[in-house]
Sequence to fold (523 residues):
Amino acid sequence: MEQRDVLVIGSGFGGSVMACRLAEKGADVLVLERGRRWQPEDYPSVSQQHWLWDEDEPEKQNGWIDFRYFGDMSIAMGAGVGGGSLIYANVSVEAKPEVFEQGWPQAIRYDVLKPHYDTTGVMLNVQSLPDNQWTPRTRLMKESAEAIGAGERFRVVPQAITFDPDWHDQRDDPYDYRHSKPWTNAQGRQQGTCVHCGNCDIGCPVQAKNTLDLNYLARAEQAGAEIRPLHHVRTITPLSGGGYEVLVRDLDARCWRRIRADRVVVAAGSVGSTELLLRCRDQFRTLPKLSRTLGHGWSSNGDFATPAYYGDRTLSPTRGPTITSAIDYLDGDEKGARYFVEDGGVPDLLGNLLEHLGQEKRFLGTRLGAAMLEYGEASDPFAHMMPWFGQAMDDPGGVFSLARRWYWPWKRDRLKLRWDYRAAQKAVQGLADRHQTLTDATGGKGMTPATWRWFKNLVTPHPLGGCNMADSVEQGVVNHAGEVFNYPGLFVVDGAMVPRSLGLNPSRTIAALAEYAASQLTR
Fold:
């Protein structure tokens, strides 16, 4: 049977950091990732294939994004080597220092995490949008903040994107990939610079987006770590002599494998890690001593979007980085609601499809192919739309558990989320109202989505909690370093351990917490 020092389950912002730092310290590290290892030519934005992941039949459908519907709450997650970095909007921002003043273990404070925030900024090559590359959305954000007397709250956000300071949108065919400048990053991987093509969330074709496979995971592999894609972990079992045995499904070979390791790091994301541990405790009973708080304290991080229409103004949200700027209301001065307003971009799926078809052999060189390429490049279907984005500091009102299926009443195996919208209502409604105020102040026509107005339904790409960190097993699932209470050598290091909403994009904080956990583990 295969034996390793460290087994890391998942390769997102928690797993990639842990794999990198433990491999650098000489540990024999194996990373198991349920999704594929993506190459630029395989991205959905380029190939027009493999869009979705199916958790029920991952052998048959193991695409780019895992979208889960839980009634009033839906959750979007990345599937692939690099985890959530594949689908996130590149924003790499630190949480507010005051966030850490309550709800966290005593050891976790902003000043403790600050050096790790700095380290992640270097590893992810975090930059800000150059002044000469502001998009129409960026300018609208600044204008709207000033129009309501909140100009001091506006700021351009830091992003894990590599920009070319010489690029500008007045050059010939500015968004063409040929304008991307090749460069080699600190981990020896080839990348390009941003050409504002707008495909951040569905795969940057020029690799200007600094996804984890290009930095942390690349460094981990240089230090000797092995990454195995299409390996889906199902159970974790403690061994009598120490360490753990993991049962994993090889989705490519369609067979089961067992792997043993001295230490296991669960880093499958807020939903994935919580589900795995729930199954180990309540379905397969391999980890019966897990905290009774497992699954509790889950937060959507208050994600919300409001579309607005500007009939006389061209905003072209399909061009430029997905998010470029923010208006910061996290101080709670506005009736106690805390939120972070952002501009939003959307990929031009139709334009991408036309360009893809125009380059196929059957159309290449034909008049129809030329027309497809022309219309694809000129496509701007949402020219006058502004998608207002943002996150809000909601209360953790979600509880994950395993439920019985009606046709298998003796079997608890269906993941269920009980989410109380009232825990998010004050914060999210404050954000929604602010979107409308900013729209009105700049001459637009906004509409709060009916799914929220009528049904209080939300969608989040930033789930947090479920395996919350705390100072005791009565309060949470893991300690300040991510080690699971009652199970030495078993860790949860990802968004699942974040015990409260941050009110802004959480990726940088998750990575900083992972850097901290790795520093504790390697002492």
Summary: The first strand starts at residue 2 and ends at 9. Residues 422-441 form the longest helix (20 residues). The CA atoms of residues 45 and 202 lie 5 Å apart.
